[in-house]
Amino acid sequence: MCLTCCILEGKHIPPGGVLYRDSLVVLHHCCDVKLPGYLILSPVRHVEGYHKLTDAEVTAMARVSRRAMALVMQHSGDLAEKVYLVSFCEETLHFHWHLFPRYSGLPAQLGEVAHQNGQVDGPEIFRWVRREWKVTLPEMETPEIQEINEYIRRGMVDKTSTAIS
User: Fold this and answer.
1) Is the pLDDT of residue 80 over 70?
2) Residue 116 and residue 33: Cα distance in Å, rounded?
3) Which terminus of the chain faces fewer neighbouring Cβ atoms within 10 Å, N or C?
4) Quick one: pLDDT at residue 89?
5) 138: which DSSP letter?
6) Which has more confidence, 142 or 112?
7) Cα(144)–Cα(159) distance, rounded to whole angstroms?
8) Predicted confidence (pLDDT) per residue in 37-56, tens digit
9) How far apart are CA 71 and CA 29, in angstroms?
10) Could you say which DSSP state residue 93 is in?
């Protein structure tokens, strides 16, 4: 069974648990890369490609990703310069989006690795962080990750406790 389906069935608990779920989508923190605010958004239904999503799932994915990205940016103040939206579906075939924050200072920290022709190279930053900051699940339970997860969880629900619109 794929990781996302295991999370949906409660057989695998991501850091901080599920941050948002409705009948169409599920949002949680990445399970193995120690970067606060690195989120994974998937449809609830096991689908192996964007082209197989229903119109309702596409709309839900867009709505939830926009809100989650805004929350990561808001939580970080000036620290997050961007939140990348990436999809490869290689480690697990269950379609998903990586909502991957690029914090200030990261390109400089990586030096030439993070630059291509004088420009920040987002895909290379993503690749480097995924490789170099990969950890086991117990190492994911840091105060920084717990704090941003709680902030996102609260922010994904409005004041009347209904799902975001």
Assistant:
1) yes
2) 24
3) C
4) 77
5) G
6) 142
7) 24
8) 999 999 999 999 999 999 99
9) 13
10) -
d(CA 83, CA 80): 7
Give the residue, 8 or 160, on which the prediction is more confident.
8
pLDDT confidence bin for 95, thresholds 50/70/90: very high
Q: What is the pLDDT of residue 163?
A: 47
Calpha distance 82→123 (Å, rounded): 13
SS3 89: coil
CA trace torsion 50, 52, 58, 60 (10° rounding): -110
Q: Which residues of 89-111 are buried (b: 16+ CB within 10 A; e: fewer)?
A: eeebebbbbbbbbbbeebbeebe
The amino acid occupying position 133 is W
- Coil, helix or strand at residue 48: coil
For every residue of 99-127, DSSP letters joined together read EEEEETTHHHHHGGGGEETTEE-HHHHHH
CA 83, CA 37: separation in Å to the nearest integer? 9
Lookup result for tokens 């799932």: 57
Q: Indicate whether this model's pTM tops 0.85.
A: yes
Q: Examine the pLDDT at 108 and tell me if it is beyond 80.
A: no
Backbone angles phi, psi at 65, to 5 degrees: -65, -40
